[in-house]
From TrEMBL, chain A:
Residues 102-152 form the RNA polymerase sigma factor 70 region 4 type domain. This is SigE family RNA polymerase sigma factor. Residues 15-71 form the RNA polymerase sigma-70 region domain. InterPro entries: RNA_pol_sigma-70-like (IPR039425), RNA_pol_sigma-70_dom (IPR014284), RNA_pol_sigma-E_actinobac (IPR014325), RNA_pol_sigma70_r2 (IPR007627), RNA_pol_sigma70_r4_t2 (IPR013249), RNA_pol_sigma_r2 (IPR013325), RNA_pol_sigma_r3/r4-like (IPR013324), WH-like_DNA-bd_sf (IPR036388). It comes from Streptosporangium algeriense. NCBIfam families: SigE-fam_strep (TIGR02983), sigma70-ECF (TIGR02937). It holds the Pfam family Sigma70_r4_2.
From TrEMBL, chain B:
This is Uncharacterized protein. It comes from the Bacteria. The chain crosses the membrane at residues 39-59. Keywords: Membrane, Transmembrane, Transmembrane helix. The keyword Transmembrane applies.
Length: 169, 266
């Protein structure tokens, strides 16, 4: 199997997973697809090095996170849509209010803290793994996590209920 | 409900169709790789250009190195793959006396191709009108110094000394004390014919001269050495023939390879 075929096979199988990481970061499926598209393009450029990595999934996840953070630093005017406009998502029922609240709360969390929360609680990474992905120290991850959770609590308005089970780092 | 569950709910609620194109990523990735390769090539080319320019600007002119002028071959010879360090100046009393009597205008030049030391001097009189070229092969033959009239308008180089060539009859006799007269004559003719010891020439040249080549009648060539700015607005040159190379025309050319003058090299 040629490197290009290996790449295509791997990426095709991991697209839904990457998308589910990208969406909490930007709360927008359109932007999430753009992020993933940019990330897999970078992955193609670095494919030989990525193949040699110990954990290819972690390598790709780190690319995705860094693409997101770089895009935040670049400002809205530098964002480019690299995928065709997807159709509007279906509106759906039971937890719709909760989802709306969550999206609003996450949008209020600064990007780096948001990335920390996504890695810690959505990807189930340890503090050390998160620190490696973000390129910072474990102490920074702990402080960013605490601040991000505080922001979520303040916006969701239920510090003692919804987020009570979160272990502070 | 904890934070993890909130994230799960968020990702589960809305899943529009996938709009990510892997083939587009491959095409874009290839374009990035191509651009990076081109950029790397351009950087390499610029680096080579910068190093070449810096070397050309920073290094001293040909032949001048740390106060002692060491000639460089005008054409690279197959055996001269490493720079030749200048040997110590001759320590003989005659050399020192001549150096004191005829102080060098510039540094003393050593030409490794001909193993000759040369310098230009104004002679014992600092206001002398005629430059003097001194040269020595460093051996027991000593130092020869001779003044010369200025080069004429159409003259770019002049042969001052032809030396270290065939031994004189007296020298051959000294080396072969038991030989008969006929044998000595034959030895002299033989070493003249084959140039066993290697004939050498040196002289002065205008600074326009950059290169010297000795061209034998059969087309064989020997590169000489030209050292410019040796003093008195002149350079010096030297060439040594290899064994078997007995006669040639000395061709002096400028920086562009244009022939300025030809001199007999017999």
């Amino acid at each position: 199997m040629s490197p290009d075929e290996e790449y295509t096979a791997y990426v095709s199988g991991r697209l839904p997973w990457l998308r589910q990481i990208a969406y909490p970061l930007c709360q927008d499926w359109h932007r999430a697809d753009d992020l993933v598209q940019t990330a897999i393009t970078r992955l193609y450029v670095k494919w030989h090095r990525a193949c040699a990595a110990d954990d290819l999934d972690a390598y790709v996840r780190t690319i995705l996170i860094r693409v997101f953070l770089a895009e935040q630093r670049g400002g809205w005017f530098s964002r480019a849509r690299v995928t065709p406009l997807p159709p509007e998502p279906p509106v759906q029922g039971d937890d719709h209010d909760l989802v709306m609240d969550m999206r609003r709360a996450l949008a209020a969390v600064p990007p780096r803290q948001r990335a920390t929360l996504v890695l810690r609680f959505h990807c189930d990474l340890s503090v050390e793994q998160t620190a490696h992905a973000l390129g910072c120290s474990a102490g920074t991850v702990k402080s960013q996590t605490a601040r991000g959770l505080a922001t979520l609590r303040s916006i969701l308005g239920a510090p003692d209920s919804r987020l009570s089970h979160v272990e502070e780092c | 409900m904890d934070t993890r569950h909130l994230f799960d709910t968020l990702a589960r609620q809305e899943q529009p169709p996938l709009s990510i194109d892997v083939n587009q990523a491959v095409a874009a990735g290839r374009a990035i790789r191509r651009r990076r390769r081109m950029a790397a090539g351009a950087v390499s080319a610029l680096s080579v250009l910068a190093v070449t320019t810096t070397t050309w600007l920073v290094l001293p002119q040909t032949g001048q190195r740390d106060g002692i002028i060491v000639s460089t071959p005008t054409i690279a010879t197959p055996t001269a793959t490493t720079p030749t360090a200048a040997p110590a100046q001759p320590s003989g009393a005659r050399f020192k006396r001549m150096k004191k009597k005829y102080p060098p205008i510039e540094d003393i030049t050593f030409v490794p191709e001909a193993s000759v030391w040369m310098w230009l001097s104004w002679g014992p009189d600092p206001g002398g009108k005629r430059p003097i070229l001194c040269g020595t092969f460093g051996g027991p033959d000593g130092v020869s110094c001779a003044g010369f009239p200025p080069l004429s308008g159409k003259e770019f180089a002049r042969t001052q000394v032809a030396a270290a060539g065939p031994l004189s009859a007296k020298q051959v006799r000294a080396l072969n004390p038991d030989a008969t007269t006929a044998q000595l004559r034959e030895l002299i003719q033989e070493q003249k014919r084959t140039n066993t010891l290697g004939k050498a020439f040196f002289g002065v040249a205008r600074n326009e001269v950059h290169r010297l080549t000795a061209v034998a009648p059969d087309g064989n060539r020997v590169s000489g050495a030209v050292v410019r700015n040796a003093g008195a607005g002149l350079g010096v040159w030297a060439v040594k023939y290899p064994p078997g190379f007995t006669t040639a025309t000395l061709t002096f050319t400028d920086a562009n390879g244009k022939t300025l003058q030809r001199l007999p090299g017999d």
